[in-house]
Amino acid sequence: MPAERRNERRRAVPRREGPLGGQRTTRSEKRGGTFGMNGWQTLFYKESLRFWRVAFQTIAGPVLTAMLYLLIFGHALEDHVKVYDAVSYTAFLVPGLAMMSVLQNAFANSSSSLIMSKVMGNLVFLLLTPLSYVHWFMAYVGASILRGVVVGVGVFAVSAFFTSISFAAPLWIVVFALLGAALMGTLGLIAGLWAEKFDQLAAFQNFVVMPMTFLSGVFYSIHSLPPFWQTVSHFNPFFYMIDGFRYGFFGVSDVSPWLSLSVVGATLLLVSVVALYLLRTGYKIRS
User: Fold this and answer.
1) Which of 64, 159, 183, 203 could be disulfide-bonded to 268 (CB atoms 3.0-4.6 Å)?
2) Phi, psi values for residue 81, rounded to 5°
3) What's residue 195's pLDDT?
4) What is the pLDDT of residues 90-120, one digit of tens each?
């Protein structure tokens, strides 16, 4: 009887409201829910499954797009452009195209998921869960990293049929791939929170993400640009992500990989702070 009374008292105690409108996770829930997954892991699984179930669109499509860039630009400029000694132009393109695919798909994953939930009205069900804003951040950004990396690996796998790929410093490849995907996943989270309809998200992607991606040295070395545009390129954080990533393959880059790491790390920290603040305050997701 005493044990039953204690259990009844526990059930009667109201649970406190969480930062995003849901209830705070209890100790028993923190130890694991269905299939041994806790709250943020379940949301991460849901976000991963969301893009994996339409892999033909979310993975195969971007890989095909990157291959078209490789075939067209590589075939047209192979004998006319020389960037690094002993590195063909086609081989030079592969890391840039792979990183571009990683960045664009990491951004698309978190931003499209949030805007679809807001437009369709099912975001309220997520707000009712006992998840904190940190859990939201971990799940959405984690799934974005996963999608970006999967697409990048797909680009490399197909590129191997067209040119030989070397790995001068594999650790740098992994570091910049993960940091770049995390940065763009976080930026996509901010864009998804800010946008209220698909038109606004498309504008953000077309006028911010795409120009900064294509002007980051994917198809060229910034040393081939006039001095003014070289200076402008140094203010583009996308340039440092791609240049540092490319260093891992050829051992040469336009700037020091340590400088690239510092810029990318600082930018990631900045956008993460902004995203966490917006989530904590419930920006445009709580009425």
Assistant:
1) 183
2) -120, 130
3) 92
4) 888 899 999 999 999 999 999 999 999 888 8
Per-residue pLDDT, 95: 92
Position 139 scores a pLDDT of 95
Whole-angstrom distance, CA of residue 234 vs CA of residue 230: 7
Nearest alpha-carbon partner for 94 in 171, 17, 15, 162: 162
Q: The tokens of 220 are what?
A: 């060229």
Q: What is this structure's pTM? A: 0.84
